[in-house]
Amino acid sequence: MSVPSTTPRPAVEPSIWPRLEPLLPQVTKPIQYVGGELGAVVKGWDEVVVRWALMYPDAYEVGLPNQGVQILYEVLNELPDVLAERTYAVWPDLEKLMRAHGVPQFTVDAHRSVRDFDVFGVSFSTELGYTNLLTAIDLAGIPLLAADRTDADPVIVAGGHAAFNPEPIADFVDAAVLGDGEEAVLEITAIVREWKAEGSPGGRDELLLRLARTESVYVPRFYDVDYLPDGRIQRVVPNRADVPFRVHKRTTMDLDAWPYPKKPLVPLAETVHERYAVEIFRGCTRGCRFCQAGMITRPVRERSITTVGQMVQQGLEFSGFHEVGLLSLSSADHSEIGDMCSGLAEQYAGTNVSLSLPSTRVDAFNIDLAQELSRNGRRTGLTFAPEGGSERIRKVINKMVSKEDLIRTVVTAYTNGWRQVKLYFMCGLPTETDADVLEIADMAHEVIRAGRAATGSKDIRCTVSIGGFVPKPHTPFQWAAMERPEVIDHRLRLLKQAINADRSLGRAIGFRYHDGEPSLIEGLLSRGDRRVGAVIRRVWENGGRFDGWSEHFSYQRWVDAAAEVLPAFGVDLDWYTTRQRDELEVLPWDHLDSGLDKDWLWQDWQDSLSEYEQDDCRWTPCFDCGVCPSMDTEIQIGPTGRKLLPLTPVNGAGLRIPAPTPQ
């Protein structure tokens, strides 16, 4: 193992703005690089001890609304001796100019060079952002490989859902945090603060060792991977005695103690979401077998109705947003969602504030909820996700929704004033056939027929949106083979033909889909090991950027890079994607503990193949998934019996009416 040198940090440039500003008139949407948003924080560099640069590795319009980064930004900046600033991926037009003029990757808050910070935290919700990470590291003047970095470089820490298998980017990041970030960033900050106060003993290596000893920060350099002759992993073991064999995820248990964001960032440029978002609960136990988010965020932890009300009031007053998003993996599952929505609708009656549930299960949506969400006349979009077209495939994936449930739910929406709903499905699921996919067309046709009958109007539409299935780590489908892109594309063509076979109904149905090619590459990255890092680097060197955007993604670039790099390891693209794993295979993330018992996941995989449905453990006895005992956690759900009030109601004129003093 190479030991980095103890190169001192160079002098800090106060701001690169004088060098950046002349470039901005030459690029699209220059406003996204300016900073100064409402909610932004700028602190004096020399007034603090620990400095974080936080990144969501996508464009400003996608990255700024990211809830995770906003929360950590605020948590860190509340500490008097800590500053946190934000950086986002720059578009290729600005990247080209920055390289030509020697301008480094910068933060939008004070336009400081990312290389000058102590910690560079990057939050990944999708693996397709990996090439953007390499661009940011390289533009910052930081060595691409973690092994080549010195004390002059920040520690690069990966987080977010993709960090539950950071092995494909193990060469490029110094550390990864699994799970919730609120307490994790404070612990990392405390370690960095103490190490610096002691005079940075042992340099970078000692700092990383201190992080690793927490048993909740994964430092890839302290682990070696051995492979079998057939390409499978033989074992992943620590290469020194003082680091743990397994690294555990972080779980923040009392969400009421973390009511963030209190001061949400209000974008200057147009973004994908412009609303005040409050996470009403974290975790999900519905047990959808494809859903990594539901598996890795267990257990369910509800935020109380009173805290939600206070957060909404403060967030709207600060930001001026007109929409409130009640976020979670399945928002209508909150035990007090009815009282929550009715209380908020009552409080903001007569104003232009609207409520939205961005994630709504078919079987949790009802007429009372529909009426509260549409009370002020403004209706945000409704999306329901049956996921599978046939009843059989929904049993395989454990999405316990019947066609009758869907029709009843959508008719409820139509009769309460909605004229368009979106239905989300996946293609390429385990055991799927053409017939399973074609049933999506039948379901969409019935939705339109029922909507027209219930409303007496032909002004009814639905959009069918199809995504490609990607097996994810720490789910029952982590062993599953992926379907080839040509099979996915064939089924999508059949589905489109079936939807349009009835012209009268077909014209009322929109059809949006992602072809199979990006999904296959996401599958390579989601279940890859350290050898995949060479593929990522080759793609990036060949121009790969913004792979999550269809106009920038090149399937051929990834296929060519895999063909150039992987044969040297005795594997290929299909080996990582379309190959089914067996029970005893060591998976690249087995040493990273999400709390889920691997034997339980395997049994659930077998149950899926026999089309056995698993209940929600919130309302039934424990199924021994392993999370609660291994993480020393428990399900936290209501009802609390409280109402949203007392809060200060808002009348139609926008005047504050004092609430009665609570007894």
TrEMBL record:
InterPro entries documented for this protein: CHP03960_rSAM, Elp3/MiaA/NifB-like_rSAM, Radical_SAM_N2, rSAM, rSAM_horseshoe, rSAM_sf
Cross-referenced PROSITE patterns: RADICAL_SAM
Ranges where the Radical SAM core domain occurs: 270-512
Protein name in UniProt: TIGR03960 family B12-binding radical SAM protein
